[in-house]
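Limitations
The structure tokens in this dataset are predictions for the assembled complex, not deposited experimental models. Users should treat interface geometry with appropriate caution, especially where small molecules or nucleic acid strands are included. An illustrative entry is reproduced here so readers can see what is and is not provided.
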Amino acid sequence: MIPVVIAVIFLVYGIMHMTPGDPVAVMLGADATPELIQETREALGITDPFLVQFANYVKNLFTGHFGTSWYTGRDVSERLFAAIPYTIKLSLLAMLVALVLSIPMGVLAAVKHNSLGDYTISIFAMIGVSAPTFWVGTMLMLLCSLGWGILPSAYDGTWKSYVLPTITQGFNMLASVTRTQRSSMLEVLSADYIRTARAKGVSNFSATYKHALRNAIIPSITVAGLNFGTLIGGAVAIETVFAIPGVGRLMIDSIKLHDTPTVIGCMVFVSVMVSVINLLVDLLYALIDPRIKAQYLKGGKK
Amino acid sequence: MSNDMNKTNDVMLDIKNLVVEFKTEDETVQAINGIDLKINKGKTHGLVGETGAGKTTTALSILNLVPFPAEKPTAGTIELDGVHLYKTNEKGECVPALTEKDYQSIRGEKVAMIFQDPMTALNPIFTVGDQIAESVRLHQNVDQAKAMERAREMLELVGIPAKRADDYPHQFSGGMKQRVVIAMALACNPSLLIADEPTTALDVTIQAQVLEMMRGLRDKFGTSVLMITHDLGIIAEMCDEVSVMYAGRIVEYGNLEDIFDNTRHPYTQGLFNSLPNIEDRKAELKPIRGLMPNPADLPKGCAFCPRCDYAMEICKTVRPERKWLSETHCVECHLYDDGKDVSKL
Amino acid sequence: MNAANTRKIPKKKSQAYEIWRRFKKNKTAMAALIVLSLIILSTLCADFIWDYQKDACSINIKNRLQHPSWEHPLGTDELGRDMLCRLVYGARASLTVGILGTSFALLVGGTLGAIGGYYGGKLDNLIMRCTDVLLAIPGLLLCIAIMSAFKSNVFYISLSLGISYISKFTRIVRSSILSVRDQEYVEAARAIGASDFSIITKHVLMNCMAPIFVQYALAIGSRILSVSTLSYIGMGIQAPTPDWGNMLSGARAFIRGNTYLVMGPGVALLLTISSFNLIGDGLRDAMDPRLKK
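Predicted assembly:
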């Protein structure tokens, strides 16, 4: 995991390195003397070669320093750490809600295949994977805040102000996991071992929930893990729609201010979080499926 | 009727005029076209035919496990040890005679089934011991520990060390998995065992071992067996009676002697001719030409007619009636319409 | 004699025909195809109805925020421009970058995946590690990072959309290739001395087209979704060029009392993206009838 994270930082750092704009001019304003500009440049370390800068950056990361913000002139971690809790809370909450709702919905759609309920869930899920998050957020806001006035439209610190952003951010994952769960459940339900189970007298209920569900849930976990990146990426737009002071908002603001170190800090945080979630997903697999290890050994066979 | 009543005592399975329909996107086709099949207690009945003849569907109908609503029995009755599994209602439709709960208690307890592909027949996320024990717990009032004990016993019986009960299916080879499936099927001492091509997916040497083991267990427990296969060798080895199935119908039925020594139906003849002959190695193989007809597009008359070397005009338009040649031997073929004897085909 | 067999022969058309025949039966997928064709047709015909510069881009404050009427079926936006006209031109922008971005991802990702899957070994390992790295960065954030470093024009937007999708194509092509690489017909081609390039393109790729096609359709939908988000936060297609994302962004301050401003572009996005998704699903079902029940 650590090599991947470092490679990610390298990539982000490399891309951001190409960003135009002179940070020193931004920081000091127009009337700075050339000497002062040169001094500040050296102090920031941006006169060093790219690889040296990168090595220093990574070294500092391990001590919790994300570099100096070109906007505030102070360490990036200051504002980043203030923003992180909002994003973590919101993303994890959204993921939780998405998983808790999507798995039963997918199972229901598969068990009642081709019924009205199945169609409703399928249409709902299709909307969920197709609608842009920020639009869903806007519509929900129009309906619940401006229309009915039951929920606040912007973040105000109460639990109520988490409801709409959570639904919005989780909507896409909810939909894609529902779709995955439905199709994997359909596939598993027609698997030979379900027929074997039924042939030995297992009831419909037990065949569905004991034998099929645990097998069918594995692809859903994969999709949830893969979609976590999309979910947290959505934070950028959602935190803008609902005025939440999270990492996504900080990142967009910093891009507009050409505050590259802060942007890098935000990206690094998000990438680390995605990697951690993927690691947890891998661990979860092994818990559910005894074959995982064997499958890894076999490689792409079959 | 009274004659039938007397017989029920020693009849294990009695299928009468079973029709199973299969719905595809475009049309409804008959996967099984009205078959009769009777297995006496303690006997082994072989069901032979090519892939797609309807053998597996027949087996699944007995367990009421045909993939509804795509497939559905529409006519006929099935009786198991005197109990109706399917009956015909007043409208002449075929309906399940029992509740789903009753079927569940029959499955595994009275009728057990072994499936063709052992690689996919076991649930990958449970240990094999658990899967055998589950069957025991479903039908016998015992706790988990007792059931596991029984599972270990069954594993030993099929030649797998008891300590492997805690292993997962992927840790077993194909032949071993099939042994596990057999152990699972026999765990509750079923009176009827349906074996759907139990050895097709296995290596030849393993095939022999598994067959030998099945034969031993059958004799030990006195189980009736419906042996579904396309391998005439297995039939000769294991069975008392044989039904030859073609395109959803049983075209010839008889005991081992009738079928092997007095072959009557050109299709059965064709099956024998497709086998290499060990005694006469110079004999030419004579494969049956053509393919099995699409069940959605069956010939109007005899289904075998387009592939039959003896086809006559009548075969194209009229479906042959069943003709009893002796007490034990019957055939559906126009060749025997006027008592003609073409036994030396 | 062989009536049953000869009758079957005309039924056996090419594989593509079979897929199309099954696809046609899928009502939702066909509906999606029709909707999408109408959208594409409307963008092609737009120039006959409107003047791009005058109707879609120039400001007309007198007409601002007019609710839907006969003259302006979808109303006018905050700068007095006809919503329908901007919606149609917005489709042009979205589809262009969506298709360009996906094609770029397919080209690069597919090539990498094919090389990795076919040759295996260290090269494969290196490629897979690179895709791991790309996958660890959420696609949208990668787009944003790239866009903040480069100018906002169609080329760079497509490029950023493409780069963030490369790894998906790499994985799909690689796993398809792995699944057919050791099949007998590939061995046979190798045995008769076919070159690696011809084996990969002729035998291997031809036999794993299905998942690639499906992914291509789904990817276009996903790229359009991303570009709309990029434009919404001001890092994609820049005003005055109309795009559904920047139309929604511009409407943000005026939604109270002017709901129609967010309905038009939102529904257009939903329709377009779900059409691509439905077509992708339909294709998958048509190519693999096993999955459909």
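Some entries come with short summary sentences. For this one: Residues 1-12 of chain C have pLDDT under 50 and may be disordered.
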